[in-house]
């Protein structure tokens, strides 16, 4: 156990990476809970019902997470699935410990730094990379869930697969959102080049299956039965062979081998935690950039009276934008897999460094240019579960871009997560990029599953979102909204999304026009009228011990109680 630091400490950082069978935890004060309220917030009603069924059957938050993930893989395949990866932040109410389970995909052993260069030494275009076998990383979510279940599961492992298996056999009605994204992928590319996706989601004429079409997936049901019998069946045997065969198919085949699958291990890590006012914010460590960069954004905002400049003021948003721009520049420069590069976590979150960066925000106009800082260097679905014992799961899970690689094995889509590596292995100055690809490396992520504790170490809230690199901005927005602006979870989710990364600030089409004009007058360049596709889900514990939650109406999420 990593010892807890008291509420008076200015910085609370705990960062440790250990093997699958190690132990990595951050401890807050253990809480004594009588059986209490439970809640699930996730991106699809079927997935919420799967989680609630697990809780009603005596399952833990981790059991519910397994049921939710296996269901999302079926009903929301454009976003996440068992062919991808995830980060889970888990709070154990009995011990007060917070643990991160890292199920991020890994590059096959044969991967080199030239992975994304073409025959002329130029970076491959994203559209060519997206559906390539070269884009598929070794999936990690099943191994990660197996480890979390071994540590914190209450139901039998196999019981957590029955909901999704039955739904796959019987079929489910295609939702409006899933239909719209099937249409979108058909418009974006020639789906005849990915017959798995075409045959599953389109009719014989090449038209996307309509809303309410009942989509059954007996192949996926069969895969779930194999995994329910033994999770290693995902990584060894016939299912693993199907995965390798799908990755090896053209065009641009990948290099994944059966040995790569058999050798995959999740990591059990300590979270990145830092105090913000009277709260302690904990999230995922590298290779996720979420824990570092969300905490860096919040740390830079702490010197300012954010409560006095609420969401109806341009000044409040100006500060948020500048903190985001500064932190994102550090993300791009420094964050990668710590097994391969030295990531200056402690330096980036130190008081001295954050105060230096925060001072740049103390102005009336936009910062003209935002380079990465110089720390002192010593060295895409989201859901939340609280069970009746007070244990909490905040988990962000993804297959990367729109139906992952569009390649299927065993009835599920395989990720295209290796596109999260830098396509050019060198920085502009010729130095090696921290996030360059290489064998066995986990690509940098922006997944930011977050749990917040109050000054006494008690669970206060959990939040997170899908959204690629914009996840960090989405999650930070909800933290400012709830902790500084006094909003409910749903109100914080409903705030317009604002993504300050670089010199062009992306604002959602719901952002007030008068505030946008004020920001332009301050010198910001805005990319307005955008649809920022967050998928935020939040559960918060109120002072009386009851739970309240929020689900992002930009997707099809709901909140449910057993």
How far is it from the N-terminal to the C-terminal residue, by CA? 32 Å
The Cα radius of gyration reads: 22 Å
User: Roughly what fraction of the amino acids lie in strands?
Assistant: 15-25%
- Overall, the morphology is globular
* Overall number of strands: 22
> Low-confidence parts, pLDDT < 50 over ≥5 residues?
1-25
Task: Quickly give the structural class.
Answer: alpha+beta
Helicity, in percent? 25-40%
* Largest sheet, strands/sense/barrel: 9 strands, antiparallel
Arithmetic mean pLDDT: 90
Count of alpha/pi helices: 17
Can you characterise this structure?
This protein has 562 residues and is of the alpha+beta class. Among the domains are: 19-173 and 219-268 and 384-420, no CATH class; 174-215, no CATH class. It is built from 17 helices and 22 strands. It has helices spanning 45-56, 61-75, 126-130, 141-152, 162-170, 176-188, 195-201, 218-229, 238-248, 258-262, 290-301, 314-334, 345-348, 351-359, 471-484, 489-494, 513-521; strands at residues 17-18, 26-27, 39-42, 85-92, 97-102, 172-173, 214-215, 267-269, 272-276, 279-283, 381-386, 392-398, 408-409, 412-413, 450-453, 459-463, 498-500, 504-508, 525-530, 537-541, 547-551, 558-560. The strands form five sheets. Strands 1, 2, 3, 4, 5, 8, 11, 12 and 22 form a nine-stranded antiparallel beta sheet that branches. Helix 1 (45-56) runs antiparallel to helix 2 (61-75), helix 2 (61-75) runs antiparallel to helix 4 and helix 11 crosses helix 15 (471-484). It starts with 16 loop residues before the first strand and ends with a strand. The model is unreliable at 1-25 (pLDDT under 50).
């Amino acid at each position: 156990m990593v010892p807890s630091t008291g509420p008076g400490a200015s910085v609370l950082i705990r960062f440790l990476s250990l093997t699958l069978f190690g132990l990595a935890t951050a401890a807050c004060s253990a809480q004594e809970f009588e059986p209490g309220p439970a809640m699930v917030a996730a991106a699809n009603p079927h997935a919420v019902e799967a989680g609630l069924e697990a809780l009603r059957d005596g399952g833990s938050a981790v059991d519910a997470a397994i049921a939710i993930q296996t269901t999302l893989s079926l009903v929301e395949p454009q976003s996440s699935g068992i062919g991808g990866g995830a980060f889970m932040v888990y709070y154990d109410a009995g011990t007060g410990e917070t643990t991160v389970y890292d199920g991020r995909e890994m590059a096959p052993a044969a991967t080199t730094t030239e992975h994304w260069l073409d025959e002329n030494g130029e970076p491959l275009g994203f559209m060519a990379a997206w559906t390539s076998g070269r884009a598929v990383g070794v999936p990690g979510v099943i191994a990660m869930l197996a480890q979390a279940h071994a540590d914190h599961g209450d139901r039998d492992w196999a019981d957590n697969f029955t909901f999704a298996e039955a739904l796959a056999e019987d079929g489910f009605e295609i939702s409006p959102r899933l239909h719209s994204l099937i249409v979108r992928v058909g418009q974006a590319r020639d789906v005849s080049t990915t017959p798995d996706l075409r045959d599953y989601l389109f009719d014989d004429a090449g038209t996307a299956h309509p809303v309410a079409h009942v989509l059954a997936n007996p192949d996926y049901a069969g895969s779930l039965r194999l995994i329910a019998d033994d999770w290693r069946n995902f990584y060894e045997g016939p299912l693993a062979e199907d995965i390798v065969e799908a990755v090896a198919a053209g065009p641009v085949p990948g290099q994944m081998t059966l040995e790569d699958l058999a050798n995959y291990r999740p990591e059990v890590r300590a979270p990145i935690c830092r105090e913000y006012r009277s709260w302690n914010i904990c999230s995922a460590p590298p290779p996720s950039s979420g824990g570092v960069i969300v905490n860096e954004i919040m740390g830079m905002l702490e010197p300012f009276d954010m409560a006095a400049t609420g969401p109806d003021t341009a000044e409040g948003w100006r500060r948020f934008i500048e903190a985001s721009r500064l932190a994102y520049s550090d993300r791009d420069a420094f964050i990668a897999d710590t097994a391969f590069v030295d990531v200056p976590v402690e330096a980036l979150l130190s008081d001295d460094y954050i105060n230096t960066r925060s001072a740049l925000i103390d102005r009336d106009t936009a910062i003209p240019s935002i380079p990465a800082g110089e720390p002192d260097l010593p060295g895409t679905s989201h859901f939340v579960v609280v069970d009746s014992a007070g244990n909490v799961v905040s988990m962000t899970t993804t297959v990367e871009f729109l139906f992952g690689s569009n390649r299927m094995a065993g009835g599920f889509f395989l990720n295209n997560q290796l596109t999260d590596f830098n396509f050019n292995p060198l920085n502009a100055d010729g130095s090696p990029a921290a996030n360059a690809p290489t064998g066995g490396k986990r690509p940098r992520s922006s997944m930011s599953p977050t749990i917040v504790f109050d000054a006494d170490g008690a669970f206060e809230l959990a939040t997170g979102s899908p959204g690629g690199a914009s996840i960090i901005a989405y999650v930070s927005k909800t933290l400012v909204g709830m902790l500084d602006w006094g909003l409910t979870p749903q109100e914080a989710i409903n705030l317009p999304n604002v993504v300050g990364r670089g010199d062009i600030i992306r604002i959602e089409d719901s952002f007030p026009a008068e505030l946008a004009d004020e920001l332009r007058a301050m010198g910001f360049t805005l990319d307005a009228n955008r649809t920022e596709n967050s998928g935020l889900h939040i559960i918060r514990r109120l002072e009386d011990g009851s739970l309240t939650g929020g689900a992002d109406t930009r997707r099809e999420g709901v909140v449910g109680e057993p």
